[in-house]
Specification:
By secondary structure, the chain is an alpha+beta fold. Helices cover about 40% and strands about 10% of the residues. It has 34 helices and 17 strands.
Length: about 775
């Protein structure tokens, strides 16, 4: 671990040292091309040149003129997020305190002025480690330990920094009850818990990961150990020169030498909107510099490069997640640990022009006013902070604006975080679709319908809200009837937040037809990069003809992830049809894709992506090497085993595929995808008695995966076990009622059982699911003629 000369102490908040946030741009089936020394990507012609170079100078230079801001920042979560471990910074009990988890007793001690922990290492045995840094400060603090190769790993046991009467002042494990041991992906020594990859960028200033794939080492550097002035404002040397009138300062007079001016609120007031009790922005917000600056760290994202340019879109170096199923509920509420950006972009506040610093002081990070008063800046207290509106006693917990409009979800065991979508509670949606709501968070013994009825009694009408996309996204995730029309309407509705329209594209991409294609291709022209990226990703999984038709023009998009995802989609089979002009743009974009994978070559996901491109470009030897490297980095990364085995299968080396899958299962015995793949391999080897137990285990381990149930049922049928096959399908259809393959199989079962009427009714339901398909006409022709 190397620090630049200015390496100081403090920084921000215990962020996500227990959960990997990398969502690799190249999802399943993605392709890449890899050389450890990738060529430098050429800059697309339509991307503006970077601002005049400036250097990081450190907060001491800023504090001389900005004393008030510096004083406010001191002691903030940004200030204290990462610090050198010493008497001033360590909060935990290191007086030979002991904590037992998963059969291991960890001891925290102090010797010679240094802090030590005796705990299980990567081999599962007790080792003594010195604490190098503290990580975060409230409501919990973690501790970083240095390993060879420049790696820092956050201990999985954290200190609860809350007061004792709030349950704090204790050691606790971030994965209680999960029995995490050495070799597990969640073990604190595992690659998935690596600080350099997961946490570092958002806890230090000018952080550069510095991974070298050849030596498998990190040379991570920073300008300041904490989140200081220049982490948000950008390098300050030009501004300092302007302020001191040094050098060519007068040439910088127009910008004051600022790399990034966060001045979107300058001169803005919030004026009353009639007698509504609300206020509106005096002038519309025309830029998103402030929100984009915050988004780099307050969004769940994967990082593609260290080369962030202040003032440019964070999309140029980051792939920020959308409302992905499993990360968000389908109504947009946060589900997994996603931070604030994706939630805030859905809100009425964002649509009205509110920025982060309208509510939060950007230096102290405190609210602009305490409690409900922060909302009363724009929403008149006389109208909204009264029992007539809240329907709770004044001053009670239920009368807090945030209780209803920003409910919390607790992460990392003790860290309750507010949902920033600022929504009106919708218990009626909960009753229908199953997601949580603020009412039942408190009234947990009551039903969502009870809460929905209460709101109707208060207001005289059904609950309503700004966010009205839950049905479309929910049905889109399931693929139910009328899904496509609802998703297309959502995509085309420019009044909807861009992240919502992009998330609708994600779901529509699974159901590409001539009718839906038009909605997707129109979205290639969208002004918002999150929509364009979702569209390109959807088309990158389409058939080669569609990819060759629509993706080449996206190769010089202004936003990096859009360009490289277009190149990824064209790589291999799609390259041959490119015109010379498109080929030149492809070469530039694929070089950028290569660079992104090389940057993330410490991750198994990136190595798999590299292997995928080698495979697509018919270089199986290189692909095999990359898949094996992914497995070497993380033996729990099951998709690499599956892809490697599939490559062996494609080469006719079924025996090698069998060996690979068994190796994966020896390391990951309860992994459905590997049991499924091994079962298919055994079928191809004509070893059906051995295949059936593997396919059965896949279906048992992942009962919600309709594909596993379908394949197992087909295998049972081929083995002459029709009754068992139907039982499998009957159980699976309850979980996946709209799965086409299962429904087709049930049509055949009905017909075989003489239930022709039931078969015809099911075919009609299939037509409702796929109104453009003619396949079901052929299916109906197979049925016995009408009597």
């Amino acid at each position: 671990m190397t620090a630049a000369p200015n390496a100081a102490a403090p920084s921000r908040r215990a962020r996500l040292a227990g959960i990997a946030v990398l969502l690799v741009l190249a999802i399943a089936g993605a392709t890449a091309y890899f050389t450890l020394r990738a060529p430098a990507p050429a800059q697309p012609a339509n991307v503006a040149a970077a601002p005049t170079a400036a250097d990081f100078v450190g907060r001491a230079q800023c504090a001389g003129c900005h004393a008030a801001e510096s004083a406010a920042w001191k002691g903030s979560d940004h200030d204290l997020a990462m610090q050198v471990a010493d008497e001033r910074t360590v909060l935990g009990d290191f007086a030979d305190a002991k904590f037992t988890y998963a059969g291991t007793t960890t001891t925290f001690s102090r010797r010679d002025g240094k802090y030590h922990v005796s705990t299980d290492g990567p081999d599962g045995k007790l080792h003594d480690y010195e604490i190098k840094y503290t990580f975060g400060v409230r409501p919990l603090q973690q501790y970083l330990i240095e390993f060879p190769g420049g790696r820092l790993q956050p201990l999985g046991i954290a200190w609860d920094a809350r007061p004792k009467d709030a349950g704090g002042q204790r050691w606790f494990h971030l994965y209680p009850g999960q029995n995490v041991k050495a070799g597990d992906y969640l073990h604190w020594t595992a690659p998935g818990q690596n600080w350099n990859f997961m946490c570092s960028e958002c806890h230090s200033t000018n952080l550069r990961k510095g991974f070298d794939a050849k030596s498998d080492t990190f040379h991570t550097t920073w300008s300041e150990l904490d989140v200081s002035c220049e982490a948000c404002h950008g390098p300050g040397s030009a501004h300092v020169a302007w302020a001191k009138k040094e050098g060519d300062w007068n040439a910088r007079d127009a910008t004051k030498g600022l790399v990034l001016a966060l001045d979107e609120r300058k001169g803005v007031t919030w004026v009353p909107k009639g007698d509504s009790g609300n206020r509106v922005r005096s002038v519309p917000r025309q830029a998103s510099r402030e929100i984009d600056t915050c988004a780099r760290c307050h969004a769940r994202a994967s990082r593609l490069s260290d080369d962030y340019v202040y003032g440019k879109s964070p999309f140029d170096t980051h792939r920020l997640v959308r409302l992905d199923d499993g990360l968000y509920w389908n109504d947009g509420q946060m589900r997994d640990e996603v931070y604030n950006w994706g939630s805030f972009l859905q809100s009425r506040m964002h649509a009205a022009g509110v920025t982060c610093s309208d509510c939060h002081d950007p230096h102290s990070l405190k609210l602009r006013a305490p409690g409900n008063a922060v909302c009363a800046q724009c929403h008149a207290a006389a109208r909204f902070d009264v029992p007539a509106h809240t329907h709770h006693a004044a001053g009670s917990a239920g009368a807090a604006c945030a209780a209803c409009h920003m409910p919390t979800t607790t992460y990392m065991v003790v860290d309750a975080r507010h949902d920033h979508s600022m929504r009106i509670p919708r218990p009626d949606v909960s009753a229908k679709l199953g997601m949580p709501n603020a009412c039942n968070d408190c009234h947990s013994k009551q039903t969502p319908q009870w809460a929905a009825d209460a709101i109707r009694q208060w207001t005289g009408k059904a609950p309503a809200s700004f966010q009205n996309f839950a049905d479309a996204l929910h049905d889109g995730a399931l693929g139910g009837p009328n899904t496509r029309g609802a998703l297309m309407a959502l995509i085309d509705d420019k009044a909807q937040p861009a992240i919502v329209r992009a998330s609708a594209i994600d779901r529509l991409g699974h159901w590409l037809t001539p009718a839906t294609l038009d909605a997707l291709t129109r979205s290639l022209n969208d002004t918002d990069p999150v929509v364009r990226l979702a569209t390109v990703e959807a088309l990158a999984s389409a058939d080669p003809v569609l990819r060759q038709r629509y993706l080449p023009r996206m190769l010089d998009d202004a936003i990096l992830p859009v360009r490289i995802e277009a190149a990824r989609g064209l790589a291999g089979q799609g390259e041959g049809a490119l015109s010379p002009e498109d080929r030149a743009r492809f070469d530039k974009a694929i070089a950028e894709y290569i660079a992104a994978q090389v940057y993330n070559a410490d991750r198994p996901e990136a190595r798999m992506s590299l292997g995928n491109l080698y495979a697509a470009r018919t270089d199986p030897a290189a692909a095999i090497a990359e898949y094996k490297k992914a497995i070497e980095i993380d033996p729990t990364f099951v998709q690499a085993y599956a892809n490697l085995a599939d490559l062996y299968r494609a080469r006719g080396a079924e025996g090698e595929a069998d060996v690979t899958l068994r190796q994966g299962l020896a390391r990951n015995p309860r992994t459905a995808v590997l049991h499924h793949a091994l079962g298919l391999s055994l079928v191809r080897q004509k070893r059906m008695p051995e295949a059936l137990p593997e396919l059965r285990d896949a279906n048992k381990l992942a009962p919600d995966d309709a594909r596993f149930a379908y394949v197992y049922a087909v295998a049972l049928l081929n083995a002459g076990k029709a009754k068992d096959a139907q039982a499998v399908v009957d159980a699976a259809i309850l979980r996946s009622p709209y799965d086409r393959s299962l429904n087709v199989m049930l049509v055949r079962f009905d017909a075989a059982n003489g239930n022709v009427g039931g078969a015809r009714a099911r075919i009609q339901r299939l037509r409702e699911l796929d109104p453009e398909s003619t396949d079901y006409d052929k299916l109906e022709e197979e049925l016995a003629p009408r009597s």
